[in-house]
From TrEMBL:
<feature type="transmembrane region" description="Helical">
    <location>
        <begin position="216"/>
        <end position="233"/>
    </location>
</feature>
<feature type="transmembrane region" description="Helical">
    <location>
        <begin position="12"/>
        <end position="31"/>
    </location>
</feature>
<protein>
    <submittedName>
        <fullName>AI-2E family transporter</fullName>
    </submittedName>
</protein>
<feature type="compositionally biased region" description="Acidic residues">
    <location>
        <begin position="361"/>
        <end position="372"/>
    </location>
</feature>
<feature type="transmembrane region" description="Helical">
    <location>
        <begin position="323"/>
        <end position="343"/>
    </location>
</feature>
<keyword id="KW-1003">Cell membrane</keyword>
<keyword id="KW-1133">Transmembrane helix</keyword>
<feature type="region of interest" description="Disordered">
    <location>
        <begin position="351"/>
        <end position="372"/>
    </location>
</feature>
<feature type="transmembrane region" description="Helical">
    <location>
        <begin position="253"/>
        <end position="286"/>
    </location>
</feature>
<keyword id="KW-0472">Membrane</keyword>
<feature type="transmembrane region" description="Helical">
    <location>
        <begin position="70"/>
        <end position="96"/>
    </location>
</feature>
<keyword id="KW-0812">Transmembrane</keyword>
<dbReference type="Pfam" id="PF01594">
    <property type="entry name" value="AI-2E_transport"/>
</dbReference>
<feature type="transmembrane region" description="Helical">
    <location>
        <begin position="157"/>
        <end position="175"/>
    </location>
</feature>
<comment type="similarity">
    <text>Belongs to the autoinducer-2 exporter (AI-2E) (TC 2.A.86) family.</text>
</comment>
<dbReference type="InterPro" id="IPR002549">
    <property type="entry name" value="AI-2E-like"/>
</dbReference>
<keyword id="KW-0813">Transport</keyword>
Length: 372
């Protein structure tokens, strides 16, 4: 081995490692700053996601002569009405059949007790009573913990409502003044940043819109297929369960689990154990097709990312930040891909045309002179 080349390689590796550590430190500091300002960033992110769904309608209205304020207000009110309508489609049918639901749950509990009383468990009523008494004593001894958890849950709900309200107002302003943002941003930045940053922002916005629309399409596929399965099994409340499945598709992992649990519970209460198993199989099949086929294919096409990258991004985001990380993993990966593609374009050497030899120049001259 050449000692000089070895030392040069080591110095290069050490310098590269030091630069990488500085970059990682900067990323860590940036993430800490984002975490400290999360109460502001999270409504902003939600508003951007809502805006990507509603902006095409606002643009359509502006192109047909509507003032920007009127178009934004109309689209915002329409979006709120759609959300309220979806909630009504879920709540009203469930409330109309609440008596049957309560009776079904009671019968299901009784059936479970009867099954537990038979072989192979052979659990008698006295054992069930002892278990209930033990559970009650445990609950009574944990009253303070339950109160703390309840207050924490109420605080979480209040924070969620405040976040949604703020996101709705931000969505209105994005719809109203969003077209002025990039020109304003270009005027505020110095030098070539006034050109680079707006280009990256526009490409990221296009990518984000593609992601949200693809997520909505995947949710619609889930709702349609699961709704058809519930209808074939003759499970009641098919429409509210389908709407719930579509809405829950925007909350990765937990949303699908919650919607599936509700559908299986309704099937168990109204149709029995066999129907509940069939519904569970249908939901698992659709969820597997969505997670491994539909979602990666649709999002990879819309975002320009390979399906494996989408799967890895969702897994990593869920590991690092739970539900929110799973929700934001794919758009963050898309933004990183957009930024990397732009940097690669700007840092690449321009492709220069090869110089022509003397013979090629002479042949070109002869070719141009031939028609004369």
């Amino acid at each position: 081995m050449n000692p000089d080349r070895t030392q040069s390689a080591l110095r290069t590796a050490a310098w590269t490692s030091a630069q990488l550590l500085v970059v990682l430190l900067a990323v860590w500091v940036g993430l800490k700053l984002l975490g400290s300002a999360w109460s502001i960033i999270w409504p902003l992110v939600l508003a951007l996601l809502f805006t990507t769904l509603t902006e095409p309608l606002a643009r359509f209205l502006r192109n047909h002569g509507w003032p920007a304020t009127a178009a934004a207000a109309a689209v915002t009110v329409t979006a709120l009405l759609i959300v309220v309508g979806a909630l009504v489609l879920i709540v009203v049918p469930v409330a109309a059949q609440s008596d049957q639901l309560v009776d079904g749950v009671t019968q299901g509990i009784q059936q479970a007790r009867d099954w537990a009383a038979g072989p192979p468990l052979n659990i008698g009523d006295d054992q069930v009573t002892k278990g209930v008494d033990s559970a009650v004593a445990k609950v009574q001894s944990s009253v303070n913990d339950i109160i703390n958890v309840t207050l924490s849950g109420v605080s979480t709900i209040v924070n969620g409502v405040v976040t949604l309200v703020l996101a709705v107002f931000l969505m209105f302003f994005f719809l109203k003044d969003g077209t002025r943002f990039l020109p304003w941003l270009s005027q505020q930045l110095p030098g070539r940043l006034s050109r680079d940053v707006p280009i990256v922002a526009l490409r990221s916005w296009t990518m984000l819109g593609s992601f949200v629309r693809s997520q909505a399409f995947v949710g619609m596929l889930d709702a349609v297929f699961i709704g058809i399965g519930l209808w074939l099994v003759k499970v009641p409340l098919v429409l509210p369960l389908s709407v719930l499945t579509f809405v829950a598709a925007f909350v990765p992992i937990v949303g699908a689990l919650f919607a599936g649990f509700v559908a299986v519970l309704i099937a168990l209460v109204f149709n029995g154990f066999t129907a509940a198993l069939i519904v569970l199989g249908i939901i698992l099949l659709v969820q597997q097709l969505e997670g491994n086929v539909f979602q990666p294919m649709i999002q990879s096409r819309g975002l320009g990312l390979h399906a494996a990258v989408v799967l890895l991004a969702v897994t990593l985001g869920g590991t690092l930040a739970g539900i929110v990380g799973s929700l934001l993993a794919v758009p963050v990966a898309g933004v990183v891909a957009v930024l990397w593609a732009y940097l690669r374009e700007e840092l690449s050497d321009p492709v220069s045309e090869p110089e022509m030899t003397a013979e090629q120049v002479a042949e070109e001259d002869d070719g141009e002179a031939a028609p004369a």
